[in-house]
Amino acid sequence: QVQLVESGGGLVQAGGSLRLSCAASGRTFSSYSMGWFRQAPGKEREFVAALTPNGGSTRYADSVKGRFTISRDNAKNTLYLQMNSLKPEDTAVYSCAAQPGHLYGYFAASAGSYGAWGQGTQVTVSS
Q: In angstroms, rounded to a whole number, what is the distance separating the alpha carbons of residues 65 and 63?
């Protein structure tokens, strides 16, 4: 099973940008669907974005569409989340997740579809 380590979180002012990275171990990263999820204090974990193994299909939560971009570099075994126009409500712990094969639609957005998770990185957006 792939192991995941997130980085890139921090404190940023509203309107600013951050890029999160998720480094994956193993030689089969290119065969995994990947996702980003977030959890704010006192709230349930929610889906942010996902993409298929070759990056050809992406899915976003409505709350981040047009502001966040998910991408991957299979040669570097790394997943990214570019976050622009950040809002205070984006404050949360962001975690990446992985699952072998192709996930689409409902399954790509469902945390239960993913078998491997990183430890998370804190993103705090000040107003």
A: 6
Task: Give the model confidence (pLDDT) of 54-76 as tens digits.
Answer: 988 999 999 999 999 999 999 99
Helices (H) and strands (E) in the chain, counts: 1, 11
Residue 102 CB partners (closer than 8 Å, separation 6+) = 33, 52, 53, 57
CA distance 26 to 60: 26
Residue whose C-alpha is closest to residue 70's, from 61, 82, 85: 82
Q: In this structure, what token pair is assigned to residue 66?
A: 């047009």
Q: What does the alpha-carbon distance between residue 65 and residue 92 come to, in Å, rounded to a whole number?
A: 17
- Please give, one letter per residue, the 3-state secondary structure of 46-108: EEEEEECCCCCCEEECCCCCCCEEEEEECCCCEEEEEECCCCHHHCEEEEEEEEECCCCHHHH
What is the per-residue pLDDT across 3-52, written as a single tens digit (0 to 9) for each? 999 999 999 999 999 999 999 997 799 999 999 999 999 999 999 999 99
